[in-house]
Amino acid sequence: MSHKSVSAHAGEISLTQLFLIFFKIGCISWGGYMALISVVRSEIVGKHRLLEDDDIMDGVALAMLLPGPVAVNVVAYVGDKIRGPLGGAVCAVAVILPSFLLMVGFAALYLSWGTMVVADKALAGVLPAIAAIILNAGLQMREKALQGPIDIAMAVIAAVLLLTVGGIWIVICIFAVAAVVGILRHQTADADTPAEETRHQPTFGRGSRAIALFLAMCIGLFLFLPQLNITSILVQLFSVFSGMSLLLFGGGYIFIPMIQEAVVNTHGWLTIEDFAASIALGQVTPGPILISATFIGYKVAGLAGAVIATIAIFMPPAALTILASHQLQRFRHLSRFKAAQAGIRTAVFGLIISAAVSLLIGIASEAPNLLAPASIFGLSCFILMYLKKGEIWTVLIAAGLGVLIF
């Protein structure tokens, strides 16, 4: 697929179409950030041909190096690449909306009846299917990511390190080494770059300054809210969640202890039982686990609180991702930058495969009988790789089997 054909497809799609695509993605993306990214890749690269695999892998690498929820940051990056900042905002809202609506419903039922409404059996069936979806996405990317034995070795090392050590610093080290290897292997002469391209690089314009000011406001509000003596619960909710979203790295599970410290111990908004319920419901809804912020906001200040908490946890890091992406465009004409990106994409491929393996290990460690999840995983791989059916059918079939088997 050529860059020219991709640009033509991207130029033709409307914001409404983008919204519907990502709303569908948000409805079926259980299983963590890499599951959502895998479905994004299937829809945007495979089905609609709006971007290339290189773009998705670049977005994953950038999002993993920045604070906030990785999956939504990647979605904002993808939307921005297709239709600019407004496209990024539309895609992020669309992918979060299904989880938001479900969480508001679950929160209302839980707070009224004192019980959680969870589909444990269906989720048990869906998780092996999600592992198959991630694995299939990784395999679809292998042609762009793996160009020879060195790339294969780098991908394997990246996957093993993430599985055995993990953590944001390991990710940073993996990307740094991969970038150096990429520069050593792929660098071409800067003189080959057209002079016209080097003269028209993005600058830190009015839009970028507005985003930077908004992000500075979020951090300032988070750090100095006690001194400001603001009593509005909605402002307090926005301050807590927006500040944490910009200060914490490593994805949703890294946020959980910090959110607990803030909403249970510091502010006393939730009991520990209510907080545990919010995390459990975040796991059984599609989309990112940080949708638990919606439950917390609803408990504290009703529907308005749910909206504010959801915006605060997702919007600032998504805006930061778009800002960083635009500034990185200044270097896209440099051969060293392109070579570093090529190396990092190889590492990203390894991280995607490691996510599928990690999920399978978790399923195996918790399942009393491996036959059922292994069968669902195998069937899901068959549906995706040989029947070439979409992720939505895979998830629905797996959920039905989970209800029947577990």
TrEMBL record:
Which InterPro entries does the record cross-reference, listed alphabetically? Chr_Tranpt_l_chain (IPR014047), CHR_Transporter (IPR052518), Chromate_transpt (IPR003370)
Recorded GO MF terms:
chromate transmembrane transporter activity
Please give the start and end residues of each transmembrane region. Answer: 21-40, 60-79, 86-110, 122-139, 151-184, 204-225, 237-256, 300-323, 344-364, 370-387
Its primary localisation, in coarse terms, equals: membrane
Q: Where in the cell is it found?
A: Cell membrane
Keywords from UniProt, A to Z, are: Cell membrane, Membrane, Transmembrane, Transmembrane helix
Annotated membrane topology is: Multi-pass membrane protein
- Which GO CC annotations does the UniProt entry carry? plasma membrane
Task: Please state which protein family the record places this protein in.
Answer: Belongs to the chromate ion transporter (CHR) (TC 2.A.51) family.
Tell me what this protein is called: Chromate transport protein
Q: Which gene encodes it?
A: chrA
